[in-house]
Amino acid sequence: MIKLKYFIPLFILFCLAISCKENQASQTTINQDLIIDLNKLNNEIVQFQKLVTTDQSQKEIVEQFKKSRLAYKKVEWAVEYFIPETARFMNGPALDEMELEENKSFEPHGFQVMEELIYPEYEITNKEDLVRELNIFASNIKQLKSTFEVITISNDYVLDAVQQNVFRVIALGITGFDSPILQTSIPEAGESLIGIPSLLQRIDGNSKTLADLKKLITEAQKYCKNNNNFNAFNRAVFITQYLNPISKKIKAFQKEEKIQNVKKSSPLKPTAATFFDKEAFDVNGFVLSDAHNFTADKATLGEKLFYDKTLSKNNDRSCATCHHPEKAFTDGLKTNVSLNGSNLMRNTPTLTYASLQNAQFWDMRQLDLEKQSVDVIENKDEMHGSLKDIHAQILLDAEYVKLFKKAYPKTAKPEAWQIQNAIASYVRSLNAFDSKFDVYMRGEENTLTNQEIEGMNLFMGKAKCATCHFTPLFNGTVPPNYSKTEHEVIGTPKDISGKALSPDTGRYLYNKMPQLVGAFKTPTVRNIAVTGPYMHNGVFKTLEEVVDFYNKGGGKGLGYAVDNQTLPFDALKLTKKEEQSLVAFMKTLTDKKYQQN
Questions:
Q1: Do residues 326 and 597 lie in contact, with contact meaning Cβ atoms separated by under 8 Å?
Q2: pLDDT recorded at residue 101
Q3: Where is the Cytochrome c domain positioned along the sequence (predicted)?
């Protein structure tokens, strides 16, 4: 028989053991939590389906749509990171997804398609399509649950996915990219951040950095709640005072816990503490192989080749002939001029930041800078040179041979592909990230005026510029994955009179798909103050003219028949003051070396 004095300690130990087992049982994994949240999302979708099938009011349907989107935002960090193919058809743009290699297109699905069906007016004729979309969405939830039941989510991937989610909020969340009509982006941004502390708490719940992060996120959510008007929301404040500090704390937590960066090929470096770090982007993100990686010696060689007129057939034209350094590597002409003096179809684009896109030329016909350079060199209207002949000349030039040996020490003599790679490397050296905007966002200088900050908020808000020109690169390469560069159909006029559309069919020249008629690459807005005239055909001389065109809804807004226009064609209703602020902001994107111009 056990004496009482021994029984009590044994009983306590027994209770503690039971308690520990219960706690262990109650501690779910990240995968299990995701499945729980997906079940909650599914419940919202079921309720959504019920309201639609029973013909409830538009108000009830819209409110349930909003609840469903908020539920999705809690799992978006993982869905977008681990299963982006499915994410595209749950919360992607309401535009056809195209597989150009196979000449196929796929109709869009998901929240943005639903949004167009229920708002601003919900017609009963849309009921069948809406039910269909909800059924597809529910099927995608099942697929996500099946995937998260089997994949392993390690700490390094958690940190990378969470960091990318903060960047997604900056570039897509607060700009209205995925809520273009209802404009519920601000409360959704707050919801996207809510799960970060609980995820990191699994790694180290006692971390002081985590405690600071929790406080920051609580304050960020409060800011969203108190400032939930989409057009009035101050994105400059939200990014610099909340999102950038949150991003830094996540990176600090990672270092504190000694968690390695995820190794992957991307132009966005995993070492970036914020989206706006001077060294946040890697020009090797889109290179063909490690052998093509950027080096300073390659760029030095490439610069010499860039200014060498012997690359052209008649030794009278170099790359610099059409890409002037003082004009941010454009030529200031409406359209380029051919070798015989006639005008070509298209405007010369800037080479600055061109390395941070995975498509080159207005029609996106080449995917990398290496192919872009040889395309121009051998084009009969531009340089009419021959890579084979240039290679032969270089082999006979002692100075070039020496430079090639320094740039490519592993090869015995210059090779043809190295000519392309060297020129491309020089182009990859042209990204400065030192504009007024950059130093402001990094907190180095309080450089932006009230008008410029208003312009930034318009750019990322009411004016919808940032839904195509994504912050912080301000081009069409979609963050934070940066796996594709977008094109747009905006209905550009033929000339300033505005009486006819441009006859240039853009991407359709190479891919005969009706969606691509008049489609052109979304270029960077960086250095735009010195790279006019604007558009693929140089139709607009000033930024004021460009803003006016967009303000009116592009070509379709002006009354042109542009059935495949991807640009929203409703008037933006910007005031003259707002138009001026928008132009003032775009001018802050000029790198220091071009500011005097």
A1: yes
A2: 75
A3: 297-431, 450-590
- At position 131, the amino acid (one-letter code) is V
* pLDDT at res. 27: 63
9-40 burial: b if 16+ Cβ within 10 Å, else e: eeeeeeeeeeeeeeeeeeeeebbebbbebbee
Distance, in Å, from the CA atom of 478 to the CA atom of 268, rounded to the nearest integer, reads 11
Q: Are strands 487-488 and 97-99 parallel, antiparallel or unpaired?
A: unpaired
Q: What backbone phi and psi angles, to 5 degrees, belong to 311?
A: -75, -15
Contact present, 567 and 95 (Cβ < 8 Å): no
**What are the distances in angstroms from CA 31 to CA 45, 78, 121, 146, 153?**
21, 10, 38, 10, 7
List, run by run, the mean pLDDT of 10-residue segments along the chain (597 residues). Answer: 40 39 55 97 98 98 98 98 96 88 87 97 96 98 97 96 98 96 96 95 92 97 97 98 98 97 93 97 96 98 98 95 97 94 95 96 96 96 96 97 98 97 98 98 95 98 98 97 95 91 96 96 98 98 98 96 94 98 98 91
Q: What is the pLDDT of residue 10?
A: 40
- Rg (C-alpha) for the chain, rounded Å, is 27
Residue 501 bridge partners (DSSP): 493
Output the CA torsion 372→375→381→387 (10° steps). Answer: 130
Residues 501 and 492: their CA atoms lie apart, in Å, by 6
CA distance 427 to 155: 37
Give the largest Cα separation in the chain, rounded: 111
Q: Which pTM was predicted?
A: 0.93
What pLDDT, on the 0 to 100 scale, is given for residue 500? 92
Question: Cβ(577)–Cβ(584) under 8 Å?
Answer: no
Q: Which burial class, exposed, middle or buried, applies to 416 when counting CB atoms under 10 A from its CB (0-12, 13-18, 19+)?
A: middle
Of residues 569, 316, 576, 339, the one with CA closest to residue 458: 576
- Rounded-to-integer distance, Cα 393 and Cα 342, Å: 29
Which tokens belong to 222? 């409060």
CA distance 405 to 307: 20
Distance CA(531)–CA(334), nearest Å, equals 10
